[in-house]
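Reopening closed ticket. The problem is back. First fold of the pair:
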Amino acid sequence: MKKTLRLVEVLWADAWTSSGWSDEDNEPGDNEPEMCRSIGMVMHDTKRGITLASAISPSKSKIGFGHKAFVPRGMIVEVREIEKIRVVLEE
């Protein structure tokens, strides 16, 4: 059996924290999200978000996914498909 996975790059806006002292005159850029990029194979893509895996382990009937990351839909700026990957499962 063959399955096709999508390898994608996700550009997403992340929250950040700071533990130091600051005053009200912070630079305007301090109030912006940190932009991040994640690359992986799409495990799930739903209205709530996208789950990526950076490792797979095909078995006889299923694909095992490892090193997973979930990005909520509201944080996603762009999803770009890099390529489709065909995975052959033993029958």
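Second fold of the pair, where the issue appears:
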Amino acid sequence: MSQDGVEPRSSIATVAARGRVLGPSISLAGPAIVVLTLVLGASAGQPPSEPMATSQANEFSSTPQQAGPLTIDEISQLYEKQAAKPRFEGSALGWRIAGYEALLAEGIENPNPALSCEGRQVGPDTKTDLDFEVGYLPGNLKVGPTSGPEKWLCGDRGFSVRYVFNVYGALGNGQIVIERNTRSRRVLEMDIPNDSVSTGDINGTPSIFIHPADDETGLGLGRIVVIQKNTETPFTVLSVMSDDAVPFAELIRIAEGIKG
């Protein structure tokens, strides 16, 4: 919610397996005119993986997102520029951020190694210490099928709580994925352009901003990582992601509206 490129299976201990096997990383490079959508990476009986880039459409329509504020040529040019940029391999707020290959070269095969407990999925009405409510979504969005809260426990404590909103906005089909989860190391596996990372705060809490291909329209993948617990393991982060759903300024407002 999705730990980057990692998907624990029936036991949280399997998080120690390679992220490539359990779930792909995020890439913002993107094919030239393929508009990215997020998919819920968990298969039956498995905790969620990091939301990932794919060309799969959601349930609103099969019509490509080629209308609205950007032309096909503009979309193509934006993605080509993103793909041509050097990749970000650095740190923000003490968190290491890089793509899978760069992390692997450093000996970081798994960005969120195993926790010593058995993982289990629970019903949406089960109370956990990670529960939250979504207090704001832009009024101009058409909200379609929604999943969540999908909840996983590590022992008797929360491991992941996630919502996925399928939406239709100015760019057409998109998704908003909001997740709070725990992590055992300060690492985020993301293949992103080197100029896409900045820092700020959400309601006074230090946060990492991953900007999409175009802030004004929200084209591409944008992400806000709110570092809610950063002093001792397990760390806790709130991740708010938009895939072709909302402008980056609206993504900030969604993050600010999270309650709990």
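Update: turned out to be a display glitch only; the data is intact. The chain has one domain: 12-58+65-259. Residues 12-58+65-259 form one domain. Please close again.
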